[in-house]
Design brief:
490 residues, 12% strand, Rossmann fold, elongated, 3 domains, alpha/beta
Length: 490
């Protein structure tokens, strides 16, 4: 919900209205809290406010709940009660939905969303395949060999065929690229087969996602792109690596723009702990660097997770806007996490932050946002606004109607399979096999003995002699016939 100055109002208490400043959205944010405390509703409120500003949004929808943002909400029930208690009617609160575009890696609940093997790169792919450092190094060599030989790596079968080809012809590449142990190549091959079984073959291929298709507007509002991630969540590594790929691709694709009045794109990553879980140090360093630098591209990132401790300190330090819902503190570990979360806020003398975190009701949160200078304001205990859009999922029929009406419908639905490493290497293997078969056939041809060759030569010469004599006799007979006719002989 926007005020008269086009500032998103996201929470309110008796003493203050809390605004998310558009110019500070690219300083990133965090929405945290235990299950059932209102994280999804807070995400929805922030996302629809940014959409109203004209900012395109991308959301990973784990449970399907966010799809309701496409429809107008209602003023009945708990929403109406909260509107009245916060005095929102006087501010112009009214139900309305947002323009949406649905995506789905599996192509079932939205437009198919794909990238290529090359765009994913060896570092992220190593994490998807759960490779160790040695195996990851060999995977990087495979990518280098593909580049050196002009082989396109677009989908899983391309990389599988390249791995198979190098396994069978290791001697060709050892001198130029180093030794690649058969056991390591076998581990990569098994990982690719496993990834294919998890649905990875749907994610890799063409047409690949064009980043600009996530940055569209409709009738002055930013389009809310919703990725159906319920099925994708069954493959946590694929999910986490996809989010990292999206961040990396945005960072590499978008130009430097510096600080803007409002972001060019806002990303909301639910279940963010999956991004960082068991990530090796080089990957964590890359995440930290990308999160820091992507701000200059005009992109804001909001992580949604159950506990702030799920996010590494180096990344957490970059999340300036924070909405903290209730945390449970039954065990010593949980109590430590609560203390850490409380220490991240600028203290408010009106209450003890550590006590408030465990005392918050559903829909309440501790909110600390950035001011115009980029400094965090004093934390406030406040009630989050209700969304103007529908709370909860839409029906499959409503979803399909929206997909059919989308301007992108048909652009990604048909998969393209152009000539790449698989086709090139398959043809090369076929030619090599044909040449080997021909060579074997030549060696298998029976050789004549010396006696057979002598008899053959004598027969050939005799046949040639008979043929010459026969031709000479016919020639003389014809000549006599012609001369007899000329001189009148009968």
């Amino acid at each position: 919900m926007l005020d008269k100055e086009n500032r998103p109002l996201i929470a309110r208490n008796r003493d203050a209205s809390l605004y998310l400043l558009p110019s500070m959205c690219s300083r990133h944010g965090l929405v945290a809290g235990a299950t059932g405390t209102g994280k999804t509703v807070s995400l929805q409120v922030i996302a629809e406010s940014l959409s109203a500003l004209g900012v395109p949004v991308f959301i990973t929808d784990i449970k399907g709940d966010v799809s309701g943002i496409s429809q107008s909400g209602s003023l009945g029930g708990k929403v109406g009660e909260r509107v009245e208690s916060l005095g929102l009617a006087a501010d112009g609160f009214e139900p309305q939905g947002c323009p949406v575009c649905f995506w789905d890696v599996f192509g079932e609940q939205g437009h198919p969303l794909r990238t290529t093997i090359s765009e994913m790169g060896p570092l992220l792919l190593s994490r998807v395949l759960d490779l160790n450092d040695t195996q990851g190094g060999v995977l990087e060599l495979l990518f280098r060999i593909a580049d050196d030989n002009g082989l396109l790596l677009l989908d899983l079968k391309d990389l599988r065929k390249l791995t198979e080809y190098i396994s069978q012809n290791r001697a060709e590449f050892t001198a130029s690229h180093g030794n690649m142990a058969p056991t390591t190549l076998g581990a990569i091959q098994r990982g690719l087969v496993s990834l294919e079984g998890q649905g990875g073959d749907n994610f890799f291929g063409e047409p690949a996602l064009q980043i600009q298709d996530l940055m569209r507007r409709s009738q002055g509002k930013g389009v809310v792109n919703i990725l159906a991630a319920d099925k994708l969540m069954q493959s946590p590594r694929v999910y986490g690596s996809f989010l990292l790929w999206l961040l990396s691709d945005l960072h590499e694709s978008l130009p430097e723009v510096g600080d803007l009045e409002q972001p060019k794109l806002a990303l909301f990553f639910d279940e963010a702990h999956l991004i960082f879980s068991n990530a090796p140090k080089p990957l964590l360093e890359r995440i930290e660097q990308t999160a820091r630098l992507i701000r200059s591209k005009g992109v804001g990132v909001f992580f949604i997770t159950q506990n702030p401790a799920d996010v590494p300190e180096t990344v957490l330090a970059q999340l300036g806007n924070r909405v903290q819902h209730a945390l449970r503190a039954y065990t010593p570990g949980e109590q430590k996490a609560v203390r850490a979360a409380a220490q991240a806020f600028r203290a408010n003398p009106a209450f003890r932050t550590e006590d408030a975190i465990t005392d918050l009701h559903v829909g309440e949160a501790l909110v600390s946002l950035l001011d115009v200078k980029g400094a965090p304001v004093m934390v406030e205990r406040a009630t989050m606004l209700p969304p103007q859009s529908r709370i909860g999922p839409i029906s499959p029929e409503e979803r399909q109607r929206l997909i059919q009406k989308s301007l992108l419908h048909g652009q990604y639905e048909r998969q393209i399979d152009r000539e790449s490493a698989y086709e090139v290497l398959t043809a090369r293997i076929l030619r090599r096999n044909e040449a080997m078969e021909a060579k074997k056939a030549a060696k298998a041809k029976p050789q004549k003995s010396l006696a057979e060759e002598i008899v053959g030569d004598f027969a050939k010469k005799t046949q040639q002699s008979i043929s010459r004599n026969f031709a000479n006799q016919i020639g003389r007979s014809l000549l006599r016939g012609i001369l007899g006719t000329l001189f009148g002989k009968k």
